[in-house]
Amino acid sequence: MSVVKSTLPESAQKVVGQALQSTLVDLLGLSLIGKQAHWNIVGPRFRSIHLQLDEVVSTARTFSDTVAERSAALGLPPDGRPETIAATCTLPGPKDGWLKDTEVVQVIVDALEAAIGRLRERIAATDEADPVTQDLLISITAELEKQRWMFDAENWPRDN
Amino acid sequence: MSVVKSTLPESAQKVVGQALQSTLVDLLGLSLIGKQAHWNIVGPRFRSIHLQLDEVVSTARTFSDTVAERSAALGLPPDGRPETIAATCTLPGPKDGWLKDTEVVQVIVDALEAAIGRLRERIAATDEADPVTQDLLISITAELEKQRWMFDAENWPRDN
Amino acid sequence: MSVVKSTLPESAQKVVGQALQSTLVDLLGLSLIGKQAHWNIVGPRFRSIHLQLDEVVSTARTFSDTVAERSAALGLPPDGRPETIAATCTLPGPKDGWLKDTEVVQVIVDALEAAIGRLRERIAATDEADPVTQDLLISITAELEKQRWMFDAENWPRDN
Amino acid sequence: MSVVKSTLPESAQKVVGQALQSTLVDLLGLSLIGKQAHWNIVGPRFRSIHLQLDEVVSTARTFSDTVAERSAALGLPPDGRPETIAATCTLPGPKDGWLKDTEVVQVIVDALEAAIGRLRERIAATDEADPVTQDLLISITAELEKQRWMFDAENWPRDN
Amino acid sequence: MSVVKSTLPESAQKVVGQALQSTLVDLLGLSLIGKQAHWNIVGPRFRSIHLQLDEVVSTARTFSDTVAERSAALGLPPDGRPETIAATCTLPGPKDGWLKDTEVVQVIVDALEAAIGRLRERIAATDEADPVTQDLLISITAELEKQRWMFDAENWPRDN
Amino acid sequence: MSVVKSTLPESAQKVVGQALQSTLVDLLGLSLIGKQAHWNIVGPRFRSIHLQLDEVVSTARTFSDTVAERSAALGLPPDGRPETIAATCTLPGPKDGWLKDTEVVQVIVDALEAAIGRLRERIAATDEADPVTQDLLISITAELEKQRWMFDAENWPRDN
Amino acid sequence: MSVVKSTLPESAQKVVGQALQSTLVDLLGLSLIGKQAHWNIVGPRFRSIHLQLDEVVSTARTFSDTVAERSAALGLPPDGRPETIAATCTLPGPKDGWLKDTEVVQVIVDALEAAIGRLRERIAATDEADPVTQDLLISITAELEKQRWMFDAENWPRDN
Amino acid sequence: MSVVKSTLPESAQKVVGQALQSTLVDLLGLSLIGKQAHWNIVGPRFRSIHLQLDEVVSTARTFSDTVAERSAALGLPPDGRPETIAATCTLPGPKDGWLKDTEVVQVIVDALEAAIGRLRERIAATDEADPVTQDLLISITAELEKQRWMFDAENWPRDN
Amino acid sequence: MSVVKSTLPESAQKVVGQALQSTLVDLLGLSLIGKQAHWNIVGPRFRSIHLQLDEVVSTARTFSDTVAERSAALGLPPDGRPETIAATCTLPGPKDGWLKDTEVVQVIVDALEAAIGRLRERIAATDEADPVTQDLLISITAELEKQRWMFDAENWPRDN
Amino acid sequence: MSVVKSTLPESAQKVVGQALQSTLVDLLGLSLIGKQAHWNIVGPRFRSIHLQLDEVVSTARTFSDTVAERSAALGLPPDGRPETIAATCTLPGPKDGWLKDTEVVQVIVDALEAAIGRLRERIAATDEADPVTQDLLISITAELEKQRWMFDAENWPRDN
Amino acid sequence: MSVVKSTLPESAQKVVGQALQSTLVDLLGLSLIGKQAHWNIVGPRFRSIHLQLDEVVSTARTFSDTVAERSAALGLPPDGRPETIAATCTLPGPKDGWLKDTEVVQVIVDALEAAIGRLRERIAATDEADPVTQDLLISITAELEKQRWMFDAENWPRDN
Amino acid sequence: MSVVKSTLPESAQKVVGQALQSTLVDLLGLSLIGKQAHWNIVGPRFRSIHLQLDEVVSTARTFSDTVAERSAALGLPPDGRPETIAATCTLPGPKDGWLKDTEVVQVIVDALEAAIGRLRERIAATDEADPVTQDLLISITAELEKQRWMFDAENWPRDN
């Protein structure tokens, strides 16, 4: 007997569980990447991007909580421990040390694009299995796409 | 020439830099451990401890930001990337999957005690090098000792 | 001529109307069941669950208002009178008098599971008829599944 | 031995218990009647009365909680389950379906007058038995009389 | 190379872009129509409808911002300039000068119904192309249908 | 020697003092008239106008305080005692007892028009004597003219 | 037929009506007296008493509204017009012009004592007729007695 | 001549003064007992009861202020000095050192029951002497009886 | 007979009406221009100017409401319909599509300067006709001149 | 070419620039004088005046910012550096060290009167040159005259 | 085995425990003394000092909680029971009955000076034993010294 | 006899008094320098640095108040008059007139570094004399070092 009962049929649990677990890892990774850039950025746009990064972090932290609790709600224990993030997060991140403001913008655009691409796959994958989870993934995608635009617009012209 | 200038003499930078970097890793680790327990706890005290854990996470997140920004302020770039946390955080943490409420209390008491022991060493180590950093470490210790007590009091009698 | 015009084609009104009316009755029933338990609970977990129940009641009241107004917005007058709830609500509820805390947790898990099961049927039923109503039912399900988990986690081990 | 001890002598418990239980049912009935009218009202005064009804509902819900908790506080378990309300609430209520704004005003004036008449009887009845409960009934009457006036003033001239 | 990159495949961009651009124009038009009525209404229901219109305006403004930013986020620059609204907005609006309260209600019901009808077509059109955009259109429809009901209920009996 | 010194030359004190004293009496009178109507109104527009009247009262009270303190600031003691208001306020007011909603609207339009007419005279009169006082009278006029419009628009068609 | 129906038997209406009408006049008078002193006070305690007087005014205004609405709620139209206050208010008040701070304290103590003495008579008078009105008069007395003490304590030693 | 004048006849002052002075001591004692338990509690219900105790302390502090100021308002100087509390407070309290959570619940139930019993005697005693003071004692009793219930419900089954 | 009566003499109505109507159109135009730039801006200063533009929009929206209601208050119905703005607004605005940040700053400086120039003419024109309207135009000018400075300072050196 | 363009004709810039620069210096001087007195006051009215002084400081700081930004908005760089204040501020201020409360009141009355006298001259001087700047100077005068009264009233009888 | 484990070595526990326990008693004593004066003060400065005393009480209550919880956090159960305060608090306090305002100021200065003197000894005593506790004692001293100054400044000239 | 008594021994007063007085002058100077730059900055980073400077000003103002009140609390009257700041402040500041954004960043970095260097000397100097004052100086240093970093990071690469 499972510890927390699932309201999903067993057939649906695997795809939904994988979608939520990998989204959790991406969001926790994104929150740590965002903070790393927030602390190490240097350059004339320091303050503006320093503040913008905290919006990424805040979004990533809030949604990571929603995603992990959705997983638990479906009887599937989420895993957000440091070693799990380090081992399974595939988002590109910043190098060690100070980061130029132009580098930071590119790093965040890249990380958000990777996260969005994977989310769109999971939206398709969960369509049959659980429209409730799918709806959550759609909300996360909408917000990350908005934040990606705001960094990409800041990134123009790209050879800046 | 360094990117961000330090207001500390070079002789003091090493001990202060190490104290802040290892405190940063401990606090980020604690925030992830706290959330993991927040999501996976089961048992009759679920709600009470679920809420209490968010106070640990909130404390750890707020102080991790202060510590990293103090490091940057001293010209020493902080490192809070996932791989750094996974590689250098030495706090004991929870196992994978659901966690019984009594287990959670013990896990958090153990993690907080490890963090506090290390903080007290750094308070002594930074006394000469930088009283400003030392004052921050004292504040963190005061708050973590308060939270440790609240879990330890909850843990009694220990063979519960 | 109808009193309030519907923006739905007539063919869609029946399934959507039934979905909304029965959801309304379930949510009003749930709000009354939640308050009954809130007032009559006794036992060592009194305070924690007493507070948790008010979150169920608050959720049920807020969504019952949204559901009833959605029905009216589609030109279909909702019915939430006491006699209608008593006659058509099929959620299992508590017995008369004081209720042990462990009983309360089980009563709420059972009521939420019944409500969720019926909501998932209505999500499927309204997919073609009205994606706007379906989206509302998905939101309600997400929230009730979260609350169900928090009581079920508290309920473990079940023979407690 | 009773589950929750009463601070009232046994002789006083019956009259006070009946006063509180019937007030609870009236207030829960009133909250459901108010919402039914809030959702189904049509006519040129729709918005004004739609909003005014939510003040009735808010008052009824808040006082129903206070009344039920006062009953519990006296060791007398309150009963606010749907079937109890449907079976014992004697307030006149609205018919099914859309309601003209003028009808709604009359329905609410009638329901409030019935509730007030019964409250004034209970104020007299509890005078000896428990001045603390009596004081609560006086507060509820003051508020319902104020709301009755505001609907009655709106109802003039009555043949409108 | 586009200025802001799109996360949508090129095939999807046209239908999504058209849906967002025409929704933007409708919402900006609605916000201006709502304010025009808010300022020019006369009659015994002046205050009630004057206030209700500001809720339409507030909704229209908030969603127009979300829609335009969604378009930008997909690499498609939105166009909300005065001449574009005047040239492409097809919602029926009020005549010049003072407006009787009964006329205002009818004008707003008509404008909302036109907007809703077009939104429901776009919900269908974007289903394949972008579920994230579709979800936004569903949210807008839900809110506009609610506001349409509140004016339509106020409009009864229609020959008023 | 005066008790509180004036920053105005003696020649200017008389006209400014009279302008402020008569404005004070008008505003205190208006606040009492507004409350009288707020309490005694009956009719189908009861709630809407009952609330609107409190905005008149709030405006009148706030400005009466500013006007009286402006007078004191100029070394001219203001007089707002009941007998002074009764003896010198020339605004038309309501009769005793219940007031029909249509009557109330007319009463308030009349009182506001009388107050505005007198304020416009004082704006002209204080132009030379004290531009600071004049600026205050302009602010009061702007607000009262706005409130007058909102009652007058509600009053249409006047033979209602 | 009365305009607004009373929930009191006719026999009780007269004593309750008189109690409420004379309390209304006292409170409105007190609010005007308090403001007059607030504006005209001079002396070393200016600021402290200037602020304290606004608490008297705020109390008097709030309770005057409650009292007038209680009267209306009982079907008895209240009368708070300037001429009524001037003609029937018997509280002693301040003279014209600047007022020394020591005088102000005495004026307010006297006005409050007069108001309290009359309220205590009305508490006795309404005991049988309407316990709901009596409860309101008790609340007003409690607050005015508190404010009286704070001025009386300030007034010591009285020959100051 | 007394320092602060009383609005009560001399005959009433003694019984009212005693009722208020002994209530003050009980409430100050209760606030100290509540804090002592708040700090020294241990056991699995630590957090839940730790928080609940602060509601007792907050209630006791707020009412102690109201009671002492009521006494002063009647010209009777209250006495809440440490030595007075220690000498005259008769509520049972906790022993020195750590307190098991089950002990704490019993200690608070006992203290609240003692306080309530004495308050009900004073309600009866002040009925003739001062209905304003009696009304305050009724309010305190209502709140303490509510808090007593919440601890008593938590205390069940008592041999826990 | 006019619908809403004017408190201005007929001779003054024309100049005041024209001043208010053309200010209304400028402010509504400015609000749409500001949002267009807010959505379409790209370049390294994206975030800073994106936020700054919302302050322009907020100012323009708030003042457009005040201006239109001032016109209505003077019995002159304002016209803010899309076709009126497109036909009569003469402020220079942005081109279609993405806008470089440097272009945006210039566009807004130009639009604000055009609006300010026209406002200063209207301040002179309304001096005799209506000092109340003039005072409003002065307030708008003060705020727009402040915003113009903040964009112009950002625009330096202009060949940037 | 000027750095920030002016919307004023060159002929007007000199008088407006001088009015704003000298007002800025007076307000910054006043804020420092107010704080000096706030810190060094002694005597029985310490607390009351200590608090009142912070209102002077807050007013002076807020208006100094508005005045300096108005100057910049007109293309005229303001100068608020310490050496400029010390060299050009002509307001009388306090001596070094502790200040008796009666001295403080006189110092502030003197400083405010000097500031007001100079402001009234600048109101006259800017009438033609810039009504927008004049309007700001009028607002500052109104507020400073209010504060002057409150200290002057406190100062009575002056030989105190 | 201790109930709550200490993070301090045993050697440090005694000095830290004594410092915290005696500080707790001083702060609880101060909070009771402050309230006693708050209730019993009479004289022309009543209101100002009555309010100032509540800041002392609020400070004392907040720090007493922090101190007691720090003691518990170190495994040392604090004792704040009435009999402990009465027996061990050595701060001088007020006599019974009404207190003249000048007496009150002296009483509070004396109590704060006694408390500060003892705190400065404990700051020295805990320097080696626990810098975290020392830091808390420093914070309390800073706040009490600030409050002492504000009463001492009010106390001047002392023979007042 | 001193006016305000000191809780420090005389031997400690001189070093502590000098440390506080010179810190006060630095902070007041910094607040004026920060505002000067806030008003006169021009260049593409105008808005971002304009806002950042207000955080410097806010910090400097808040700490200047704390420092001056700490001085007064120790019986040492602080001196923050304009002439004292101008004569004794040694922080480097901006030149007259418009300031390029890059210049502003350098000016603030230089001023903060000068202030920090002097604060660190005073931290050492007050260690023996008064740990309470030292703790305040440590807090100020922590905050100024954080703000220095944020400007220095913005300043990179320095030859920008």
From TrEMBL, chains A, B, C, D, E, F, G, H, I, J, K, L:
Residues of the Ferritin/DPS domain: 18-153
Domain of life the protein comes from: Bacteria
InterPro entries from the UniProt entry: DPS_DNA-bd, Ferritin-like, Ferritin-like_SF, Ferritin_DPS_dom
Similarity field: Belongs to the Dps family.
The name this protein goes by in its record: DNA starvation/stationary phase protection protein
